[in-house]
Write a structure and sequence with these properties.
By secondary structure, this protein is mainly alpha-helical. It contains three helices and no strands.
């Protein structure tokens, strides 16, 4: 599976949309046990949003099976964010950091 890279920074800025065209931010999460296609669905949502030139923040909270972090390597442009560890304090810090908006 090839991940779609974030849009290049050299593209012309789009004109401001009309108030009727402004979309509210969307938070898409996946909860539950693995092996049910959740990461694949999250990857599809990321790719669709990026193709539509929407700002996307990818977060992978599963430190044992980091599928999204594998597709969107942390530290790279548009890469996934992850908590430092599975400790509740680190997860809380990561969640506070995720609410700031898209990475592009």
């Amino acid at each position: 599976m090839n991940a779609i890279p974030p849009k290049p920074e050299t593209e012309k800025p789009k004109p401001e949309p009309k108030a009727s065209q402004v979309r509210a931010p969307v938070l898409a999460t996946r909860l539950g046990r693995g092996r049910l296609g959740g990461s694949t669905m999250c990857d599809l949502l990321v790719q669709r949003a990026r193709l539509a030139h929407r700002a996307v923040t990818v977060a992978d909270g599963d430190l044992l099976n980091s599928t999204l972090a594998g597709l969107y390597p942390p530290g790279s442009p548009g890469g996934a964010s992850q908590p430092k560890s599975a400790q509740p304090a680190h997860i809380g810090e990561a969640l506070v950091g995720f609410r700031g908006g898209g990475s592009e």
